[in-house]
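Sequence in, structure out. Go.
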Amino acid sequence: MNTKKWCTIVMTLVLTFTLAACGGSDGSKNDGGTGTKSTEGESTEPQETVKLKFMFWGSNEEKKAIEGMVNSFNQSHPNIQVSAEHVPGDYNTKINTLMASNELPDVAYLSDSLASKWGSEGKLLDLTPYVEESEELQNRLDASYYYSEPGKVVGYATAAEVMVIYYNKDLFTEAGIELPPAEAEKAWTWDQFLEIAKKLTKDKNGKTAADPDFDPNNIDQYGFSFGADRSTWGPFMASNGAGITDETGMKYTMNSPESVEVFQSLQDLLFKYHVAPDLIQQKNMPDNYVRLQTRKVAMVIDGTWAQLDISKAKLNYGIGVLPKFKEPKTTYIAGASVVFANTKHQKEAMEFYKFHNNPEQVDLYKIGLWMPVETKYYTDQAAIDLWTNDVHPPEWKTAAMDYALNYSIKAPTSSLKNWPELSTKITPALELIWTNKKTAKEVLDELEKEVQPLLQGKYADK
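Output:
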């Protein structure tokens, strides 16, 4: 073979091996794409950013805090970016419209009744697989869970909120009355509460409602103030072993002797003993914290969320547990947070979901608006210290935290099916009690024929 031919063969072989080497040691082809390989064979190109939408309601204070939380999440999760939409108006109408047009956000607040309804209809993401692998999601307050069927979790309450008593300490001290109990085990009986409310109700001449010459037409200071909705009568009904329906949710029981006793007792506060302003009078009164601050009312029933406003007022106040009928109880009143089933990014949505109401990420707990839903923030002192501070009064631990952990029940709105329709019958009927048009028994007996045909049972629990 001549030299020229031999050189040609050698050059051909060299070129062949060179091209093979350029193809990569794993035999893959380099197709000129944008991806590159590291020495370990893993892609080093930037991951695609996942975009999520989050919708919520709330005051301007809550809006600022939530937007701060979202910004913090976005900075710490560069591959997940959340855009937040605050809805200041009719939230239910807005979210129902989005559901009808299939334009739902990935994560959102929902009212408790709507969360239960949509969860049972399969419109919310089944969180059970995520719960099974997350200790954080497993250890939450019992009343915070939403189920589509027994054992199948579709959401949690955004925060823990329960009903308590707030009071003006100075008015108690001046009257020589011991402060309201801050421990559920020491809760006043209803009769004890009534006698104290009488002593704290004064007319313009300084006579109390416990005095025989008290003038109920010229009251200067009321002993107590309460609203007319489920957040007031709900915990008292639970305390007396009463309910809107039986355990099945199919039989109306709001006219049981226990229920009648509760509503008649509340009506008597207004019109028999005159220790609380009626609904018409309340229309001309300011918010609860102002009522306390201006000494127009000595005690109010309100949710733990009111701590935010009350703590900012120039007021020497305290917090106590509700009076009881048979046993101490309070109502867990809170909206839900959910992930919608049609999200295209379940894993990322759940990452944000766990972040969005973490007390270590959201300052709404520290400023007094919210309480956490994870149990450790009630039982572990190091975790408690992360969200409680001098914004919360010394009795906060027993009167709010322990109360929520051990004595709270879910509001009927989260368990009864068809609640919006039931409410349209119940609310106007109860107005007859709050305006003294009829006795509690008359109203609740008459209400049966309106409510019974609408009952459809209860949503799953546990």
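Check: The chain has a mean pLDDT of 90. Residues 50-161+333-404 form a domain with the D-Maltodextrin-Binding Protein; domain 2 fold (CATH 3.40.190.10).
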